[in-house]
Specification:
The complex is a heterodimer of chains A (about 300) and B (about 290). Chain A has about 300 residues and is α+β, with helices and mostly antiparallel strands. Chain A is built from eight helices and 20 strands. Chain B contains eleven helices and six strands. Chain B is of the alpha/beta class and about 290 residues long. Chain B is globular and about 50 Å long. The chains are: A alpha+beta (about 300), B alpha/beta (about 290). The interface between A and B is medium-sized, with 36 and 31 residues.
């Protein structure tokens, strides 16, 4: 195991980790969350929500990835990792998994609203692109990055109300300065696949360094991206009720969010009233991500 | 006898039709709802496995992903109600994992394996994904074939090992790991009520002859096409005009000789074992698929 600690600022929170975290801004600030190797409980008492391989209470989440690792996230302060195999994480699998659900769970326990989204800085603020795995979030923000627009975050989008700015504005917090792209999208976006690192061994998804924001950015719009049986993309602005429902749906690990953050619905409504929320239906296949990104930019009011 | 029952098949082998029949059989009072068919794949889809795992399964290596799947299948079988069967479709081959166990092991329930003449599968699949039949035949003969993004056999984000048509069929028909009922699509066409009765009995359903006949009548090709026209079907590919095409047997016999040879070279022994013969058709060239 790695005895050195990596201390980084990620999504507005400082993490000190025994496992290297790639692409985040190093810092010397005191840690808000510790990530350590250690013993992980086999179960947690009286979970409020669960799946086959996870369980959550308001203050604890337990993940069990068979054959790979078990992770316990407690009180928004401590993430304990028990690898089943290689603790040195030579192929990057642990890091890749850790920077998803466990970090998101810790942020939620700290009261943060975590959306399943990626964001880039466009004129007037951040465009937050939300959607399920495979909807094209990373491809769209990478296409925007190729236009010279810095990214703010990829896959996790932490949005926070900003009272200081008045008028109910919201900020999206910076994540890492990398994006993860499947091979075909990376090729479509002319990314250097040959020299890029896979996110973990035998996975045809690669990590690319991109120009990224290091400070929070006001949210200009949220666009929920969804593959559908359409031949051309369609962008529709949602009314307040639809937008609130969409933001709720866009919470990362929504079941855990509802357990960890009792204010999830109220916060969703606040964000939906403050920021325009759109639904974008896109063809299931065969659309160039640059075309899709330009379409979205052109459709924002 | 109830519990988890897998509806396993190579794609385009009639599993959707079988699911409509089972839906009609289990809900005789309601119109068949193509959007709510029983047996929907949940654990081998990205969103279904993601929901249960709490992680994005697409970021796991293929070996790790399959081991996670195997664990999920065991847990699903353990939690399936004992009083009524729970059906779940899959196109996965029942592959051997790194530790020598099968993907679907003896604790994963039971399986109905629906098999169809690979020549007909090739034609149907080609229509379904709007790709040349030569590409489909090549995939059906490839031992490493996966349903997944890399090969664009079907756009999905979670690779599903299928192997060749022959390897897929062998992995299920000869499976040592769980009880399997093999149903030929051609037999389902010839005697749908009889074959549906076999499936029902295997699944522990007590179905009368009348109930079977009614389920079959309500899910005839014309009935399903009418339902698709009226309500759409979420599993239709955007590139296809419709999902329920014609469902006939024997279309593949008009494939060009070289494609039939290619399939027979790869699948011949398994075809013979399943009663499909392995002779190249003598259909006149003018009647063959382009």
């Amino acid at each position: 195991m790695n005895s050195e600690r990596t201390v980084v600022r990620a999504y507005g929170t400082v993490f000190a980790s025994e496992l290297p975290l790639v692409g985040f801004e190093p810092t010397k600030e005191p840690a808000d969350v510790e990530i350590v190797f250690g013993d992980v409980p086999l179960s947690i008492d009286a979970p409020s929500a669960h799946g086959m391989f996870w369980a959550a209470t308001p203050h604890e989440v337990l993940f069990d990835v068979p054959g790979l690792m078990r992770v316990h996230v407690a009180d928004g302060r401590r993430i304990t990792v028990a690898p089943a195999g290689d603790p040195f994480d030579a192929d990057g699998t642990l890091e890749s998994l850790l920077t998803g659900s466990p970090i998101a769970a810790a942020l939620m326990q700290r009261g943060e609203m975590v959306l399943h989204g990626s964001a880039a800085l466009i004129e007037g603020g951040a465009l937050v692109v939300t959607g399920l795995n495979g909807s094209g979030k990373s491809s769209v923000v990478s296409a925007l990055s190729a236009l010279g627009l810095p990214i703010v975050c990829d896959n996790l989008a932490v949005v926070t109300p900003c009272d200081a700015m008045g008028g109910g504005e919201w900020l999206v917090q910076p994540g890492s300065s990398t994006v993860k792209l499947w091979h075909d999208m990376a090729v479509a976006l002319n990314q250097p696949v040959e020299t890029a690192a896979r996110i973990s061994a035998d996975v045809n998804k690669f990590r690319f360094d991109v120009a990224a924001m290091l400070s929070p950015v006001p949210v200009r719009a949220v666009v929920h991206l969804e593959r559908a049986g359409v031949s051309e993309p369609q962008l529709t602005r949602l009314d307040d009720a639809e937008a609130t429902a969409m933001v709720m749906r866009d919470h990362f690990r929504g079941k855990i969010a509802r357990v960890s953050r009792p204010s999830a619905l109220a916060d969703s409504a606040s964000l939906a009233q403050a920021v325009p929320v759109y639904s974008c239906l896109r063809p299931a296949a065969g659309i160039d991500p640059r075309v899709l990104a330009q379409f979205i930019l052109g459709g924002l009011k | 006898m109830s519990g988890l029952v897998w509806l396993a098949s190579y794609p385009k082998s009639g599993s959707t039709w079988l699911r409509t029949m089972l839906s009609a059989l289990l809900s005789p009072e309601h119109e068949v709802n193509l959007h709510e068919l029983i047996g929907r794949a949940t654990l081998d889809t990205p969103s279904g496995l993601d929901e249960e795992l709490g992680f994005d399964p697409a970021e796991l290596s293929p070996d790790a992903l399959n081991e996670v799947r195997a664990a999920a299948f065991r847990r699903a079988a353990a939690s399936a109600p004992a009083t009524t069967p729970t059906f779940q479709k899959t196109h996965l081959a029942n592959i051997t994992l790194r530790d020598g166990a099968r993907l679907f092991d003896e604790q994963s329930g039971r399986a109905v394996y629906l098999v169809r003449d690979p020549r007909d599968v090739a034609v149907s699949y080609s229509h379904y994904i709007a790709e040349p039949v030569t590409k489909v035949v090549e995939a059906m003969c490839g031992h490493e074939t996966v349903l997944g993004r890399a090969q664009l056999v079907r756009p999905t984000f979670l690779q599903q090992p299928m192997g060749s048509w022959s390897g897929h069929a062998q992995s299920w028909v000869d499976s040592p790991s769980l009880p399997v009922l093999t149903v030929r699509y051609e037999d389902l066409l010839a005697d749908p009520a009889g074959q549906l009765g076999r499936v029902a009995a295997f699944a522990g359903l007590d179905a009368s002859t009348d109930a079977l006949m009614q389920a079959v009548q309500r899910t005839s090709l014309s009935a399903l096409r009418a339902l698709e026209d009226e309500h759409g079907f979420p599993e239709r590919m955007a590139t296809a005009d419709r999902f329920f095409r014609n469902g006939v047997a024997g279309e593949g016999l008009s494939l060009p000789d070289e494609l039939q040879h290619q399939l027979i070279a790869s699948c011949g022994p398994t075809m013979q074992k399943l009663g499909y013969g392995s002779e190249v058709s003598t259909t006149p060239a003018s009647e063959r698929q382009p």
